[in-house]
Amino acid sequence: MVFSTLSSSPGLPLLLHYQKPKFSYLTSNLPNPFTLNPRHHLKMSKTSSIKAHASVSDLGIMERAIQLVQSSPPTWQSALLSNLIIFTLGSPLLVSGLSLSGIGAAFLLGTLTWRAFGSSGFLLVATYFVIGTAATKVKMAQKEAQGVAEKRKGRRGPGSVIGSSAAGCVCAFLSINGVGGEAFTRLWELAFVASFCTKLSDTVSSEIGKAYGKTTYLVTTFKVVPRGTEGAVSAEGTFAGLLASVLLSFVGYLMGQINAPGAAICVIASQIANFGESLIGASLQEKEGFQWLNNDVVNVINISLGSILAVLMQQIILQT
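Structure for Protein vte6, chloroplastic, as requested:
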């Protein structure tokens, strides 16, 4: 530290001048911590470049996946990817309502549905599954004690999935292949919604009737029979089934699959079809010579009848 005055400017105050000590002979041989080894610098650059490239690649894959899911009209690729994502996220719920083979069948159904009718059709089927599974679980212990509960704690197998969706799958195939042209596109979608309204109404009425039905009777003879008897109905179950059909048809309406008259058609067709299913169950099922007429076969007949009735009613309305 050196103190001095500026002789050329006598009026100025004393200034302090600091001179940096010259210890270069001590510091010249020490490594500079801020100077990187060229090889190390190159390695870090490469690592950063790889990480940045990986981040960009991951972002690109995600963007392509989102674009694929949002494909309009849907493609087989978008249907497969969408179902893979949804089934992975919803696996806990699926396991509670389906067996392993049943999940496989449901995946095929979901893929076909998404390809034909997009996310709206998939949401309709998902709503059907959630409500149907919940109804099956109602008073499960009581149903098991009475011997009228579904097998495997209500977990459905592939036969049940196929039997419940056969008509819907036919409608999906007809729509994908453009059978009948654009004039029939909405008709196949109406039949699709009607098939699941019919099946959900049948499932809910049966399960709620088993759980809460006070009086169950055959529709053919009005004879009072125990709960769970094939072809038997109850006021409680019938009302619950009607509400379920209304709810699912309303979902179809909100999703733009059907209009208001179409929703009413689905409800009416489902109730007529379920009455026909009760007639078949009471008069033919489990009778000699009709051992082949099991629940899965009756389900196919039931939902097919609901779809056909909806199409016929729509055609009659259009013609008049």
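Residues 71-319 form one domain.
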